[in-house]
Amino acid sequence: MPSLTAKIQDVFNEPACEKNRSKDAKARKSGCSKPLIPGAAAGGCAFDGAKIVLQPITDVAHLIHAPLACEGNSWDNRGSASSGPMLWRTSFTTDLTELDVVMGQGERKLFKAIREINEAYAPPAIFVYSTCVTALIGDDIEAVCKRASEKFGLPVVPVNVPGFVGSKNLGNKLAGETLLDHVIGTVEPDDVGSYDINILGEFNLSGEFWLVKPLLDRLGIRVRACIPGDARYRDVACAHRAKASMLVCSTALINLAREMKERWDIPFFEGSFYGITDTSEALRQIAKLLVAKGANPEILKRTEALIEEEEAIAWKKLAAYRPRLQGKRVLLNTGGVKSWSVVHALMEIGIEIVGTSVKKSTVEDKERIKQALKDENHMFESMAPRELYTMLADHKADIMLSGGRTQFIALKAKTPWLDINQERHHPYAGYDGMVELVRQIDLAIHNPIWSEVREPAPWEYQPGAEEELPSTQGGPETVHAKKKSAPQLLASASAEESL
């Protein structure tokens, strides 16, 4: 197997990435992400990125060879969902101590942990993750995994991704390389069909993929493997026999899609299941690739019939929200595939995008945003919290869609906020998901709490101030109302309690 350094350089040299191809040899070696600086690790390390990609393989035991904090800090940080096995929800770690490090007991402890997991759970496979500590002390997890695989008769997969090698995005790609090296192609299915596809870079957050899979089932299209959302080890191992692939998030797994095309001639395209138009286009592209690989062309007609039916239902449901949301302004502070797919989805119902982050977006993502917005001024690479707050406090947006880390900026600015990242509790993919997204935006914007929190606090009222009250005759009338100060309010409350 190539060394970790060689693997990282191989990942940095990504032929399928247009931005990467435009770099010179020196710039290409440094990768796409900026090196982490002290205090800037909130975005996750390489270990965290690999865990994000691999842990949603739900029937696998994921063993972290590290001190307890490495697993404790990263466990359950994604909202992926499973329709069956729940082993992935169990946290396994070797829990290395200082004594283990000093005495060189790491490899022995790892082998013992693998044996205990196999005896207690009998999983189809065990994934073993190295981290900063075990990489620094030189534990050879590949040798231990090989020995354990021979001893116990099951795949034990080494995931060599110590956090210090780079960012979370690099970890995503190294996880894809791990699947290519140790999993995909290791099992030959006995039920290969002409309508088998892979979905890559779909994490099934809040069960999103379950809103899309029924559409594919109605077309007779089988998802051979969804990597990683709600995946099973055997399905991933058989993924090399699919006829086509759809890449949902190129930022994370474009190397996996490209290498599967090179090794097994599986064509792929990048698409989105966010929004009505993008969902329909994704279904069309899947059908076209399958026909190009030998499927019956009649699937094209069935796809168009399904799209026409589902779009009519979705637009009918959305009609009730259009008058309430027409012209509302949204600030989108996210990245990757959501930076363009959600933009397009929201504009379909008349919502105005006043800004969208492109910090984690590829060149192709940015081009799609430009085509949708027609204005590059609405794109920002990154925006400081102070700038976000100023924009929201000045009422330049009616709602902000972002991840949990920036929700408090919106709340401080007394602006509605909706979670669009992995911590969310509502699925937004597909036709039904688009309706749910619009419904949640409508609920957030029109929540009466916002008119309450924007009112002056009781201690901010000025005695003798004039206020306008709505007249029952249809026009405003000015009344002189002496607003009570905080002491007066307290006195009134005490008087009422005595009564």
UniProtKB/TrEMBL annotation:
The keyword Plastid does not apply. Keywords: Nitrogen fixation. Residues 45-443 form the Nitrogenase/oxidoreductase component domain. SUPFAM superfamilies: Helical backbone' metal receptor (SSF53807). It holds the Pfam family Oxidored_nitro. GO terms for biological process: protein-containing complex assembly. It comes from the Bacteria. The keyword Lipid metabolism does not apply. One of its GO terms (molecular function) is nitrogenase activity. Signal peptide: none annotated. PANTHER family: NITROGENASE IRON-MOLYBDENUM COFACTOR BIOSYNTHESIS PROTEIN NIFE. NCBIfam families: nifE (TIGR01283). Belongs to the NifD/NifK/NifE/NifN family. This protein may play a role in the biosynthesis of the prosthetic group of nitrogenase (FeMo cofactor). This is Nitrogenase iron-molybdenum cofactor biosynthesis protein NifE. It comes from Rhizobium mesoamericanum STM3625. The lineage of its organism: Bacteria, Pseudomonadati, Pseudomonadota, Alphaproteobacteria, Hyphomicrobiales.
